[in-house]
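Late entry, written up from scratch paper. The run itself happened at the end of the previous shift, but nothing got recorded in the book at the time, so transcribing now.
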Amino acid sequence: MTVSAERNKATIRRFVAEVRNKGNLALLDEIAAPAMREEMKRTAAGIRAAFDPYAVEVLDVVGDGDSVVLRGMQRGTHVGEWLGVPASGRDVSWMVLRMFKFDDAGQIVATWAFSDMRGLVEQMGGRIAPA
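Output as recorded:
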């Protein structure tokens, strides 16, 4: 495994510990490329406003070169509107798979995520309309 892959995996573990689990949005100024920062801050702030407490448990972090994939379990109490569902006060948990792409400087330049949104909406008491 390359040095950059190990560095990038460590950055993702730090992202989860500091940004997702503690709400330290300022860290994104260091670990995310300028074009990514505001979107990542909005997403992180929105999740933390909708789920309190909120935490991500890291299950796997796999890296190869400039790419890292995180598999994690997100948990929280639904205290604010999320995905159009008003606060329910329910405890919820949902899986996330998220891929990150890094530049040569070790900053996040792109990210894609897949989460069990159907399961999350159902846990919050919402309904997904059939297509």
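Strands lie at 51-64, 67-78, 91-102, 108-115.
(Scratch paper discarded after transcription.)
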